Structures are given as C-alpha cells and as structure tokens.
Amino acid sequence: MNRTKGDEEEYWNSSKFKAFTFDDEDDELSQLKESKRAVNSLRDFVDDDDDDDLERVSWSGEPVGSISWSIKETAGNSGSNHEREQLKSRNSFSYAQLPKPASTYSLSSFFRGRTRPGSFQSLSDALSDTPAKSYAPELGRPKGEYRDYSNDWSPSDTVRRLRKGKVCSLERFRSLQDKLQLLEEAVSMHDGNVITAVLIFLKRTLSKEILFRELEVRQVALRHLIHFLKEIGDQKLLLDLFRFLDRTEELALSHYREHLNIQDPDKRKEFLKTCIGLPFSAEDSAHIQDHYTLLERQIIIEANDRHLESAGQTEIFRKHPRKASILNMPLVTTLFYSCFYHYTEAEGTFSSPVNLKKTFKIPDKQYVLTALAARAKLRAWHDVDALFTTKNWLGYTKKRAPVGFHRVVEILHKNSAPVQILQEYVNLVEDVDTKLNLATKFKCHDVVIDTYRDLKDRQQLLAYRSKVDKGSAEEEKIDAILNSSQIRWKN
Questions:
Q1: If you average pLDDT over residues 111-132, what whole number do you get?
Q2: What stretches of 92-131 show up as alpha helix (H) in DSSP?
Q3: Beta-sheet strands, E only, within 388-437
Q4: CB-based contacts of 397: which residues, under 8 Å, 6+ apart?
Q5: DSSP per-residue string spanning 186-255
Q6: 375 with 384: CB under 8 angstroms?
Q7: Does 292 have pLDDT greater than 60?
Q8: Is the pLDDT of residue 127 over 70?
Q9: Exposed (0-12), middle (13-18) or buried (19+): which is 386, by Cβ within 10 Å?
C-alpha cells in the first residue's frame, strides 16, 4: 500500500465527527450516515491486495478479531438492530409530534445520564420506551395539596373535606370541645357517612361514659351510633349504651339477638330461658316464650326421629328419608314436618300436629294449608278428603274449608293430583268464572261441560266441543247434551 506522508497526516488529524453543541439536533439517523461515510472513506486508503499485511483496528483502538472486540461487536450489533427499529418507528411520525422536552430532560440529565465515560444520553434515548432511571429533579406538588395532611383545618373545613371524600386527619382535635364541635359540624351537614366517620373517631378517643353522656343530648348522632353498632355487631357496647340510656325494652331485644351467635341447640335453649324474664313488651314476651318452647320441642322430636331413622323400623322414614334436621326451624316448617312424619299421632305427643296447633295457637287457615301440602306431597288423598269433610248434627257430611277451594285446587295440582280428585274440588269453587278458568286450565272436561249445561249456553258448549279429542267420551257427552230436547237453551 502506497500512501504519502501528507495523506497520512491528514487522515490521522481529521475526523468526521463534530463536537457536541447545544444547537445540534440529536438525530441518530444522521450520525449513522456520517459514520457510514467515514467507514467507506477508509477504503480509499486501504488496498484490497494488502489485506493480509494490514492490521485492522476498531474505533476503540482494539485489533479487529480480538476477544474483546468480538464481545463488543456482538453487543453492538444487537443494540444497532434495536436502534434501527426505533428509528423506523420514529420516522413514520413528523418531528412536530414528538413531545416537547420538559424539565425531566434538563441540562443536568445530559451530564448525569452518561451511558459510558465520554458519551452523553441523547434525546432519543431519553424518549425511548426502555425504562431508565430519571436523574432530573421532579416538579414539586402544589402547596395546596400538602394542606390535605396539615393540621390547620378548622372543624367546618375538615367536615367539608370529609364530605368530598378527601384524606383528612382528625387526630389534631384533642380537646373535648374540639371533638364535640367537629361532631356538631358533621350533623349540620346532614351526611350520614361523615357523621359515622366522626363517631368512630369519638368512640376510639373518648371513654364510654363521656361518649354516652354527650350523645344523650344529640339524638341524631345517637341514632347513627346505635345503627352503626348494630351493623358491626358490637353487642357489648350496644348493651352498655341502652343500659346507660335506661332503654329497657331495647336492651332486652339487643340481648335476645345474641342467641343468633349460639350454634349448640341446648346452649341456645338455656340462653332463651334467661331472656324470658327480661323487660319485653307483652307481645314480645309471648314470642320469646314460644321460641323457647318450640326449640325445646324440636330437640325432643329430633332426638326421637334420629333414633327411629337409624333403626330403620318405621316405614315413613324408610320411604322418605329426612333431608335436614328440624332444629332451629320456623314454626310453619316444624308443623309441615310434623304433618309429614307424625300426622296420625295422638294429641298427647310433642310431635303431633294437633298438639302443635293448640300449643302455639296456629290459625285454622294456616294449619289446613300446611297439612294439605304435606299430605298431598305424600299422595295421601284419603287424608286430604278427611281434612275438608265435616258432619252436621243430623249426620250429613259436607266439605268445608277455611280457605277458598281455588287454593286447594292449585295445591293439589302442584302435587300432581289425579284429574278425578281435581274435578271434585273444582266443583266446590263457588264463583262460576273462577271454576271455568280452573277447569279449563287443568283439563277438567266434565266440570266445563256440566257448567255450560247448567248455564244453558249452547254457543260455549259448541265452542268447547272443538277443543276436546274427536271420538272421546267428552265429545259424546257434549253431543248428547246438545241433542237433548229437555234443555231450553239461551242462544
């Protein structure tokens, strides 16, 4: 390779790279193009025939082909591919769409964010998607925001901020006067959430005696506190409050509610026994007594039926095993259970339906509906018939019900009663329109035909003839009625 001395000095003293200035545009694409031209210019000084004699060095001064050069070259290639993809995506947008440099890209960030000695972080690097630590100082929050956590809010300002849902500490209100003023401001706002928040603060920072004494003359706040204590289930503090206020009936009811937390039946029964002597109203005292008596009966019935079921000697328990325990069930559920499993038992037993009816003074209407549902579920139609059959003093029988027979028909149909049973009770419905609707709905054809015959309504009978099956007994019956000369039709 022949090279003049002047060319060598010009090569080693010249550079294609410009020094950093604040006016330069940090355009990596232009830098890459300039670097490419610089590399291509080297080929003018290098003779292809003398490649073996020339030792090539990289821009860092290391021989090309060395281990350190290979490592850096590999890293550089992976990085350059990523930079080219970024450049392509950036070039698809106009320069005006780039966000304006904010304080995050300040002068200090260029001098502090060096990637390696002698190089600076470019604007494109700062705008890249790769997460990097920002060295620029953050802008301070407005002074107004720091006041949210300050202690210079008055009670009225504090309540207003609480109403808006902003963070506001109540700890600065230390004296009783300040706390009460805060409570009065909350009440004046008529916002239940704010009142409850202040009451929680007072409950935590005041003794029970002082809190109860001050709330006694503030009925709005008192009602909120009572409701809050009921919601969170703080029965102890609620009892103390009622005792302080001398509200004996509410105290008794609150004490009675504690039985819900007792799972053991025997312990619950003993607790209910202690509630009987509490100062309830006359009506509530009767309910407490019935609750205790019912649970006492349920415990006895449950123990006896569990033994019969496990022994397997009772037919009803073999055909219809129990699906759940009867303990803690309502009175109507207990009556249904008794009508289902113990319908024929004597009145003297605790599990007898008649005994339950008399003990708890169950109305006839409720008793009949419950017994009908239980016996119809077992398809005991003889018991259903006996439930509505009565005798007069002359010995004549007649069907009567304390409820409308239309309800009886609906219960029977719900339990898949035969058509013959349904027709018998549909005929007992007094209202003609209701009778026809039920008979048509449940396909009691004989009832519909006989009703139209009694009404002497030929048109309706002809219309109903088209609804029955051809050649059926119902069609023949309708034809016989239509051809009868003894009926004087209305139309």
A1: 45
A2: 107-112, 123-127
A3: 389-391, 397-399
A4: 389, 390, 391
A5: HHHHT-HHHHHHHHHHHHHHS-HHHHHHHHHT-HHHHHHHHHHHHHHT-HHHHHHHHHHHT-HHHHHHHH
A6: yes
A7: yes
A8: no
A9: exposed
